[in-house]
């Protein structure tokens, strides 16, 4: 039996950031991934880092705000360490306004941004504009009452970040791929080849599979998968163009000039990895929004299943009555913007480090159990 300080189950964005901070803390760590790096929801193409709307402020919005602020510095650290670029750029976002009375909502959010989106270094803002900053992005008729524009949203390349993160871990933690982890008992995990790992702490960051894995230890914790489909168009556009977000459809230009289009949001599905006509509909909506991508070929179609914990907040922290068992999942649609802070705070809890970022009470497993 091999012994570790920490076993991390799952090599998606949450598991990899957790491994990164575990290594920084000097924990003897093994990460187990059933398939390959980013085989789950983290292997996608969009990479939007969009803040929650700056009104009706709450703990989840504050957590995401702090995470989005911290992310550029951490990404620079990873890039410097690996020499790999992760495709990050703070390009802002424009959201076409489709109904006149929504103009007032933007004014209210702009006030909220002035209050909540401020740090000592940066003042982020939202404002109403008659049109986006670039011609035909989107088409004039797609923004009958102008746009809500913010300068806080950003994007990155999910796959590039995943590869860089995995590369940065080389030599500092043990990684086991193509092998499935299953609980054998307290602090013990068995792998597909029959070998047994033992650790003081186990962190489940297995995306959607986390909910089933935890059931024996926390039967009342639940979650579900929400399938998403996305595509990449072979464009050659300016990578500084802001993200467009309209009625559930995103257009995101990446550093190579291609445009990622997303996403469907499917609660009912049979095959989580396959794309179908629902993606065609999203692509058609995107083409109608921005006729400059009208004839661009679809060069990739992709689907994955987002983990959504019951109650919609991320699920983060210790499993009550099992002080060796931790969970970090349920980032749902915003994981790439918060996974690093989820990782730091769960590692802090796991190490009993009170100086680490704290976990909002709403996120904790203890908060989801019947009282
Ligand atoms: C179409 C689409 C678009 C999206 N767009 C965005 C976006 O623009 N911005 C954003 O922030 N988020 C976005 N998301 C959401 C984001 O991708 C997910 O929330 C995130 O990837 C979840 O990461 P995770 O690490 O929790 O789970 P996963 O990436 O699913 O990782 C879990 C890993 O655990 C492994 N695993 C499972 N069971 C076991 C086991 N028993 N043993 C070992 N390994 C196991 C799996 O193989 C998997 O690799 C999008 C998702 C989709 C589907």
Automatic annotation (TrEMBL):
Q: Name one GO cellular component term.
A: cytoplasm
Query: This protein's superkingdom?
Result: Bacteria
Task: List the Gene Ontology MF annotations in alphabetical order.
Answer: oxidoreductase activity
Q: Matching Gene3D superfamilies, A to Z? A: D-Amino Acid Oxidase, subunit A, domain 2, FAD/NAD(P)-binding domain
InterPro entries xref list: FAD-dep_OxRdtase (IPR006076), FAD/NAD-bd_sf (IPR036188)
State the UniProt keywords alphabetically.
Answer: Oxidoreductase
The question of whether Mitochondrion is a record keyword is answered with no
Q: One Pfam annotation, family name?
A: DAO
Domain called FAD dependent oxidoreductase: residue spans: 5-344
Q: What is this protein called?
A: Glycine oxidase
Biological source species:
Maritalea myrionectae
